[in-house]
Amino acid sequence: MKTGAIYKKQVYQILSKGKFISQASSDHQIRTYYENIQQNEGAYRSYFAEEGLILDHGRGYYQFCYDTETDNVVSAILVIKKYITIFSILIAWQDSIGPGDTFQKKDLLDAVNIGDEDFLRELTSYAKRDNYRDIINDLIVTLRNDGIIEKFIENDTEKFYVTSAYNYLEDLYNNTKVYNEEP
């Protein structure tokens, strides 16, 4: 492997937590990891395969995928449902949102204040609560923890940067078909 050996531990620490390593990250170190994986992808795949992990590459991101055992199917479906719901919230708020975009928590709260019905319906499907501020806080924490957005400060204002891991949400949403079995 070229220089990837020095990053195996760091890459594992990020990906094993269910996070993404994104090409369009505001964090220089994350972008460095992405480029290093890209340059040494075969070696990374082999190394992680020995550990029983599958390195997956999407549109501008890397993540771990797992062979889903029968007892983990329900857990996997719940994660997929969570991500589809999150994507539904984001496109109900701003249908053109994507990697490289920035926003503030205030922007989401403004959509609540104007009473955007689609947005409010999606928010309540994410968390059955009446306090939209708490739901938005939970949403942002989840997005940050998973590496889909990154926080930064600009002119003393907290903002969030959408990474290319957002493409995972979009792809999952667009590739999931739900069939209604009612006649």
What can you tell me about this protein's structure?
With 183 residues, this protein is an alpha+beta fold. The protein has two domains: 4-65; 71-174, Arc Repressor Mutant, subunit A, CATH 1.10.10. Helix content is 51%, strand content 14%. It is built from eight helices and six strands. The chain has a three-stranded antiparallel sheet with strand order 1-3-2. A three-stranded antiparallel sheet has the order 4-6-5. Strand 2 and strand 3 form a beta hairpin.
Fold-level CATH name of the largest domain: Arc Repressor Mutant, subunit A
Taking pLDDT < 50 over at least 5 consecutive residues as the criterion, the unreliable ranges are none
Q: How do the strands line up in the largest sheet? A: 1-3-2
Instruction: Please estimate the helix content.
Output: 40-55%
Number of helices: 8
Q: What is the global morphology?
A: globular
CATH class of the largest domain: Mainly Alpha
Output the helix-strand order. Answer: HEHHEEHEHHHEEH
Give a quick rundown of the structure.
This protein is of the alpha+beta class.
What's the structural blueprint in terms of helices and strands?
Blueprint: H1 8-15, E1 21-22, H2 28-39, H3 41-50, E2 54-58, E3 61-65, H4 73-93, E4 102-103, H5 105-113, H6 117-126, H7 132-145, E5 149-154, E6 157-162, H8 166-174
Antiparallel strand pairs: 1-3, 2-3, 4-6, 5-6
Helix pairs in contact: 4-6, 4-8, 5-7, 6-7
